[in-house]
């Protein structure tokens, strides 16, 4: 009896795999991992073992395989690397969360270079009414990548409010599709949000932190809160500080004419301390000073402009609206100090970018900031809402330029020690390598994966 069509198709797939196997040049897993340890130290080698030596061996064959029918799981021309989705809003709406994922996607060194990092928009930059369309598209991309056998990790970047519900949907889809999930908490107001919602939404948040394979937070304060609030074991939470690229040397384009130039970068929201900053600018101690404030960010710009007019300081303020990362760096080069008098923060990228560019910082000790900065050493601290304190800190930098230079130098050294993009990428990449399924390779079907993921987490 001749074989059925399905049987003939299976035999063809088997023959293709045997041909690919005959083309392979044998290479031991021990050799590969030994070289990685020599080049990158024990951590890199351990991460490679966590990812599984079989993944690398199979991945090396993909480029040499003859074309295989699409139904067998491998598409012609498919990349050797498995996919990591970087999920968050991008562009203006994404803020620092989108910026750091943009930075991460551009990194190519080990262990990130063994994965194909893809940006995945979860909300869209337009009106919130269009958000479900972007969410549906994100669901489709995750499912499609899983059906191709290429899905490794879904990196979900979590804020508060609507972000919780969108990421809950994507987390469920990722787990059902066989991907590992890294839940990365960025929300500055997650504590207040959790306290303000009812039992059902608290249970949803608890489920998210338990369903994720691993959690990343921006500091010890957030690690303790997640562990205590959701009863998460310590070995499932990593503290990874944000990182930013080094600032390339660039010339100052504004002449030093004796005017002190202060810079604010961020959305012009009340929680960022914008109103307090404008009121500080109107105090008598600053009215007589040769000083200019540039406010770079989106949000209620016209309301802030109207308040500046009302306070009589509009002639010393400049509103740029939202600016790109490159434009923000240009503004930083020409600034004498960065100021961020916020009420709530995680670990703001703009502060790290100021450290990288050796620009002195005035900020509030909120979120993870006091874990990494010290008052009058690497920054000047002011209390949230302290208008007179904000004015006094600005006056101190104007009257004592040596203080600003000392703080800037210490901040630059701190950046090199803790906040480089390379350090951040290595830490995140090692988690990807640990979380990625040991037995998955390009073209290997990922379904049904849920029991395996659950068993691995219990081990």
TrEMBL record:
CDD domains named among the record's database cross-references: GT4_PimA-like (cd03801)
Pfam families in the record: Glyco_transf_4 (PF13439), Glycos_transf_1 (PF00534)
GO molecular function, one term: glycosyltransferase activity
Compositionally biased tracts (Basic and acidic residues): 9-18, 28-40
Native source organism of the sequence: Rhodopila globiformis
PANTHER family assigned: COLANIC ACID BIOSYNTHESIS GLYCOSYLTRANSFERASE WCAL-RELATED, GLYCOSYLTRANSFERASE
Coiled-coil annotated spans: none
Annotated region described as Disordered, given as residue ranges: 1-52, 439-459
Residue ranges occupied by any Glycosyltransferase subfamily 4-like N-terminal domain in the UniProt entry: 133-245
Name under which the protein is recorded: Glycosyltransferase subfamily 4-like N-terminal domain-containing protein
Family in the record: Belongs to the glycosyltransferase group 1 family. Glycosyltransferase 4 subfamily.
This protein's UniProt keywords: Glycosyltransferase, Transferase
InterPro entries attached to this UniProt entry: Glyco_trans_1, Glyco_trans_4-like_N
């Amino acid at each position: 009896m001749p074989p059925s069509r399905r049987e003939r198709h299976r035999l063809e797939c088997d023959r293709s795999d045997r041909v690919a196997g005959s083309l392979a040049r044998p290479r031991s897993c021990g050799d590969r991992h030994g070289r990685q340890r020599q080049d990158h130290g024990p951590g890199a080698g351990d991460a490679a073992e966590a990812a599984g030596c079989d993944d690398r061996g199979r991945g090396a064959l993909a480029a040499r395989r003859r074309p295989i029918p699409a139904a067998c799981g491998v598409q012609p021309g498919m990349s050797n690397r498995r996919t990591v989705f970087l999920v968050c809003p991008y562009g203006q709406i994404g803020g620092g969360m989108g910026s750091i994922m943009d930075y991460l996607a551009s990194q190519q060194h080990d262990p990130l270079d063994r994965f194909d990092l893809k940006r995945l928009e979860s909300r869209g930059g337009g009106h919130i009414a269009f958000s479900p369309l972007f969410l549906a598209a994100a669901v489709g991309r995750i499912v499609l990548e899983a059906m191709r056998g290429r899905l490794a990790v879904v990196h979900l970047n979590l804020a508060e409010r609507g972000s919780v519900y969108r990421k809950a949907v994507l987390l469920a889809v990722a787990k059902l599709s066989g991907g590992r999930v890294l839940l990365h908490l960025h929300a500055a107001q997650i504590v207040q949000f959790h306290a303000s919602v009812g039992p059902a939404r608290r249970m949803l948040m608890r489920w998210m932190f338990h369903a994720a394979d691993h959690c990343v937070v921006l500091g010890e304060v957030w690690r303790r809160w997640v562990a205590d609030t959701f009863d998460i074991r310590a070995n499932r939470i990593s503290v990874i500080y944000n990182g930013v690229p080094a600032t390339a040397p660039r010339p100052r384009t504004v002449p030093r004419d004796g005017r002190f130039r202060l810079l604010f970068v961020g959305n012009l929201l009340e929680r960022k301390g914008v109103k307090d900053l404008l009121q500080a600018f109107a105090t008598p101690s600053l009215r007589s000073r040769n000083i200019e404030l540039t406010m770079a960010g989106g949000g209620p710009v016209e309301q802030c402009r109207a308040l500046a007019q009302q306070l009589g300081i509009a002639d010393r303020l400049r509103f740029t609206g939202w600016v790109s990362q490159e434009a923000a760096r240009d503004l930083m080069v020409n600034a004498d100090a960065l100021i961020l008098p916020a009420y709530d923060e995680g670990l703001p990228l703009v502060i790290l970018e100021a450290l990288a560019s050796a620009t002195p910082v005035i900020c509030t000790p909120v979120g993870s900031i006091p874990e990494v900065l010290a008052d009058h050493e690497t920054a000047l601290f002011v209390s949230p809402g302290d208008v007179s304190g904000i004015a006094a800190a600005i006056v101190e930098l104007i009257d004592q330029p040596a203080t600003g230079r000392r703080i800037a130098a210490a901040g630059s050294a701190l950046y090199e020690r803790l906040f480089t993009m390379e350090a951040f990428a290595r830490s995140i990449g090692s988690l990807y390598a640990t979380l990625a399924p040991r037995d998955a390779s390009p073209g290997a079907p990922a379904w049904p994966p849920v029991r395996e993921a659950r068993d691995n987490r219990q081990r």
